[in-house]
From TrEMBL:
<feature type="transmembrane region" description="Helical">
    <location>
        <begin position="256"/>
        <end position="276"/>
    </location>
</feature>
<feature type="transmembrane region" description="Helical">
    <location>
        <begin position="171"/>
        <end position="193"/>
    </location>
</feature>
<dbReference type="InterPro" id="IPR009457">
    <property type="entry name" value="THH1/TOM1/TOM3_dom"/>
</dbReference>
<keyword id="KW-0472">Membrane</keyword>
<feature type="transmembrane region" description="Helical">
    <location>
        <begin position="67"/>
        <end position="86"/>
    </location>
</feature>
<feature type="transmembrane region" description="Helical">
    <location>
        <begin position="106"/>
        <end position="125"/>
    </location>
</feature>
<dbReference type="Pfam" id="PF06454">
    <property type="entry name" value="THH1_TOM1-3_dom"/>
</dbReference>
<comment type="similarity">
    <text>Belongs to the plant tobamovirus multiplication TOM1 protein family.</text>
</comment>
<dbReference type="GO" id="GO:0009705">
    <property type="term" value="C:plant-type vacuole membrane"/>
</dbReference>
<feature type="domain" description="THH1/TOM1/TOM3">
    <location>
        <begin position="254"/>
        <end position="330"/>
    </location>
</feature>
<feature type="transmembrane region" description="Helical">
    <location>
        <begin position="296"/>
        <end position="314"/>
    </location>
</feature>
<dbReference type="InterPro" id="IPR040226">
    <property type="entry name" value="THH1/TOM1/TOM3"/>
</dbReference>
<protein>
    <submittedName>
        <fullName>Tobamovirus multiplication protein 1-like isoform X1</fullName>
    </submittedName>
</protein>
<feature type="transmembrane region" description="Helical">
    <location>
        <begin position="137"/>
        <end position="159"/>
    </location>
</feature>
<keyword id="KW-0812">Transmembrane</keyword>
<feature type="transmembrane region" description="Helical">
    <location>
        <begin position="30"/>
        <end position="55"/>
    </location>
</feature>
<keyword id="KW-1133">Transmembrane helix</keyword>
Length: 330
């Protein structure tokens, strides 16, 4: 009896604390400005990395790696501006303006990280001798469909501010996040398992596995489409070059794929659950000023921490000297 009383008291105290912070203008400013600063830091890191890559390999155009870091810079930069001016943005009229500024970076985040899914899908399909020529078309088609549907929802809300349509928009965003999580689970998981099963019965085969991992995590993200053929995945022999031999300290562990898969799958799954719940329960809404604690945990767990961790994992630079047979993805 006494234990249940203390449980109720603790629950009441926690609820009071939660409500007090949510209703406090001071705490709202502290939390949203902290999010602004965190996003600004991640955006700056992505920009610095983009500049480093450009200085490292200036002879290549917009490779996959450069696009990935540029989009990270844009997404996190927009978020920083939004939370920096949160007092004005959350009170915009018509309300659809607020929804656009909050949802657009989320869609760009989806496009940014599904770029990794596309790359891993290409790796897996080519390694298994499966057709891979339509994967990029599927990626572009899915992204275009997401943007078109979301724009249609925004236009409707601009004409007629309808709570039902707004809830449909949130459900749509939850579905988009689920698709991204599923993509990471399927192709990230398959690629991880495939590399785990790679034959390593000799030192030569162990070296080949390390070369494959190196190419997957760096050459591929740098946009070198012929990296698979160069590595000889599914073929023999592997073509060993001096460029790789002088970079032994940059050979990553196999866990590279596993870490990124786990991080991205988790963040998109959390996004799917939270956004889906907010569509049916207004008390879980993220696009209002008086839910700063929910916004803090949501954006930290679904964007800031995942982006920071992935940028850290991908911090290595591509080698300066690249064989003439490498070509950037066009």
């Amino acid at each position: 009896m006494r234990e249940s009383f203390w449980v109720r008291e603790e629950a009441y105290a926690l609820r009071s604390w939660w409500d007090e912070i949510n209703e406090s203008d001071k705490w709202q400013d502290v939390i949203f400005y902290f999010l602004c600063a965190a996003y600004a830091v991640v955006s700056a890191v992505a920009l610095v990395q983009l500049i480093r890559i450009q200085l490292r390999v200036p002879e290549y155009g917009w490779t996959t790696q450069k696009i990935f870091h540029f989009m990270n810079f844009v997404v996190n930069g927009v978020r920083a501006v939004v939370f920096g001016f949160h007092t004005d943005i959350f009170l915009f009229r018509p309300r659809v303006c607020t929804l656009v500024l909050l949802d657009l970076p989320g869609i760009l985040f989806f496009s940014t990280y599904t770029l990794l899914v596309l790359f891993w899908a290409e790796i897996y399909h080519q390694a298994r001798s499966l057709p891979a020529d339509k994967l990029k078309f599927i990626y572009i088609f899915i992204n275009c469909a997401v943007y078109i549907i979301q724009i249609c929802i925004w236009i409707y809300l601009w004409i007629n501010d309808n709570e039902v349509v707004e809830s449909i928009g949130k459900i749509f965003m939850a579905v988009v996040s689920f698709v991204a999580a599923l993509g990471f689970l399927i192709y990230g998981g398959r690629l991880f398992v495939m590399l785990r099963r790679f034959p390593i019965e000799s030192k030569g085969r162990q070296k080949k596995l390390h070369e494959v991992e190196w190419i997957i995590s760096f050459c591929g993200l740098s946009g070198y489409r012929s990296g698979l053929d160069w590595a000889g995945i599914g073929r023999d022999p592997v073509k060993i070059t001096s460029d790789l031999q002088v970079w032994p300290q940059h050979v990553p562990r196999l866990d590279f794929v596993g870490y990124v898969t786990a991080i991205c799958f988790t963040c998109f799954l959390i996004r799917c659950i939270v956004v889906g719940l907010s569509a049916f329960d207004s008390s879980e809404s993220l696009d209002v000023l008086d839910h700063p604690i929910l916004n803090f945990f949501y954006y930290m767990l679904t964007e800031i921490l995942p982006s920071g961790l992935v940028l850290y994992i991908l911090r290595k630079l591509p080698p300066k000297r690249i064989s003439a047979q490498y070509h950037p993805i066009r």
